[in-house]
Amino acid sequence: MKEKLLKILTDICPDVDFETETSLVDDGLIESLDIVAIVTEIMAEFDVEINVDDLLPENFNSADAILELIESKKN
Amino acid sequence: MKKITDYSELSTKIMSCLKNKAITNFYLSKDEILSEISAEHIYIEENDSSLIILRKRETHYSMYYYLWGEFPDFSFLPAMAVAETAMREKDTALKEADELLVSAGFCREFMRNRMSRPADISNNQVSPRIRTAEKSDFDGAKQLLYNNFSSLTGCLPSDDSLMTAIGEKRILLHDSGGLLHFEKTKTAYELRHLCTNENARGKGIGGELVAAYHSMIDKKSVVWVRDGYAPAEKIYINNGYTRDGMYSSVLIYK
What we know:
The complex is a heterodimer of chains A (75) and B (254). By secondary structure, chain A is mainly α.
């Protein structure tokens, strides 16, 4: 699942190192409009429902954080 | 148009739009949405391929869109709707949506460029002529903002927001007649408004206010500057800001 996620993230923001970065939002490496694009793609790819309540910086600060969000929605 | 009174209804519609891979310029947080709903400021218009969210202001509506198919007929819009879309050069879909809005009857008023300054821990010397505003400064601060910024496109704070900003010490005043207003987000500070009285311009007041603001913050700072407005951009460049690639298009439906 992480590989699929990393591919989605890299397609949206090819200049960002999602494997190592842990402050994607805090350091301004991804913008609000990137988060919308990411949410759109992960909802389609992983068949989960992300809502406005989940659009918090801490949920998108790293690939692992996004993965946790996806897994929490699957459960 | 339908007034929205229930956050979960709007949240569900937004989720449905994202499932449809909609293009959007809507990035309000849950707290901002709740605040606007409780103030009865949120209206929507929807059809099979779009959700339009309108945020009522004193003189106009701010328009946000989710678009995923055929463009709607915007004739339902009340007079004076302002739509601003932030994008970068690589955001092709947003650029296309912006152009399609122009084709659908919106007029492009101007563009803005975002400028950023990294966090700076150096101690800037603050002019003794600058202080944080107090409640008694409300009327003067509001007047200064309304004299210097358009009520349509100037992103002016509501009375409640201005009073809150004063209470949280986010309004700086210069005794020669200048004002700086900033907001704090989780990741950065945003310089929202910088202005001086007309007869006080060219005396370095703007620069002093910006330096004072920088002495108060410990994170990155961003500011949106009207494209082509050299005096403002010069102040920011002189204070360590650079364009960071994000820009916006401001459209009005009249």
